[in-house]
Specification:
With 231 residues, the chain is mainly alpha-helical.
């Protein structure tokens, strides 16, 4: 028998290499407290700038709208001696020629020594009689009115004065007609303590003593608006 082969020397087992550890993804670190505070402060400043800008825009728009409105509501001064200063929109619905006639009544009454109350009465009267228009006709032409004795009325002018008040020229002249009216009012005893419409009724001798009351508020507004100083 042949001899057995020599046994092979046993190799020392190879040492195992340690397995590589996978690096876990690094976690994003949160910013520190100072950084967070800085971010908050920056955001706050941005918000403040936005609010300031928005507020400035609102104020600018408000001024752009309100200033013209304020100027529009601030009426130009009225000078009783200058009809060009009379408001085109009128005063309580009275305008143009009507305000010019009211101005004549106010100036004439003042020159005769009648203060605000008397001036209001004069304007009230002309409002009720002719709508502050110097018309050359009267109740006979418009409504067929007659006098108590049956004769036709001859009323003309601002105060609708009949022929016994004066000539046609006198009654159709606003200043002269106003003088005729206040001459009679001034001779009426205690007219200052009477109701304005009642005092007018005694001068004009109309059929309704309360008729002129409806014009008192308008006449007061016109007199007060036109009695300011001329600038």
């Amino acid at each position: 028998m042949s001899a057995a082969p020599a046994s092979r020397a046993k190799r020392a087992p190879a040492s195992k290499r340690p397995a590589k550890r996978r690096k876990s993804p690094q976690r994003r670190r949160k910013p520190g407290g100072r950084r967070q505070a800085a971010n908050r402060l920056r955001r706050r400043k941005i918000r403040q700038r936005l609010l300031i800008s928005a507020g400035a825009l609102v104020v600018a728009v408000g001024l752009f709208v309100l200033i013209p409105l304020g100027l529009a509501r601030d009426p130009a001064p009225i000078c009783i001696d200058d009809p060009q200063t009379f408001p085109a929109a009128g005063i309580e619905g009275w305008s143009g020629e009507q305000l010019e006639n009211a101005a004549t009544i106010i100036r004439t009454a003042e020159a005769l020594g009648f203060a605000r109350e008397g001036q209001i009465i004069g304007v009230m009267t002309a409002m009720g009689e002719s709508s502050l228009r110097n018309i050359d006709y009267g109740d006979w032409e418009t409504r067929g009115f007659t006098n108590p004795d049956g004769t036709r009325t001859t009323s003309i002018g601002l105060f609708q004065q009949q022929e016994w008040w004066g000539s046609v020229e006198q009654r159709m002249d606003p200043a002269t007609a106003t003088t005729l009216f206040f001459d009679r009012l001034g001779r009426l005893p205690n007219w200052q303590t009477m109701e304005p419409s009642a005092a007018i009724h005694r001068v004009q001798i109309n059929t309704d003593r309360d008729y002129y009351s409806r014009f008192q508020a308008d006449a007061t507004a016109v007199v007060d608006a036109m009695s300011g100083p001329c600038e």
